[in-house]
Design brief:
It is a single chain. Strands 1, 2, 3, 4, 5 and 6 form a 6-stranded antiparallel β-sheet that branches. By secondary structure, this protein is α+β, with helices and mostly antiparallel strands. The protein has 2 helices and 6 strands. The chain has one domain.
Length: 208
Amino acid sequence: MTFSPRDHGAAARRSKSATRSRARGRTDERGASLILAMVYVISISLVVGALADWAMNDLNNTAHFRSSTALNYAVSSTAQVAIQSMRYNPQMPATASPALANCWTPTSGYVSELTTVNNDPVAIWCSTVQNLASSSTRVVTMYACQTTLTASSTSADAMSAGVACQTKPLLTVQVTFDDYLPGGLTLTQTCTTTCGLGAKIDKWIWAS
């Protein structure tokens, strides 16, 4: 079969057209692959960002939880010291009960305070209602708070801090002490040497 020059030209044009079509197809495929790659990268970035944010929140929550737990331990320890001190060595208020008083005799300053538990200084005040004619001889309410008082703070500073703590304590504890000796003899004055035969914690309330 003989082909004319016109036939050869048409064949060449068809070949070039097919080549261009294949080139456009490869270009379209590369463009689609690029778009898919971008979608993949963006999706992964969003997932990683969300995970990083979640991990940071979890770390922050852990730090806050540890800090809160350490403070609660310090406050509880201070209350336990106050209970034991008040049981055997009553600290009666200078004015009529139930005024605030120390829960133990401070080694310095004017307030019963612990500063050695987790480096969280905690002060505590005691309010005592006494009934010498009852085996429930002393009902002592204790108010514990974080404090910035120091040994150089004045008695007025300590009292002002105590009133503020009584209004909004971190921990409120109420304990009933039985100061009666075996035999049940009625007391005529606050015990001095044989105190705290019995003790019962009536309330242990954390601030909400």
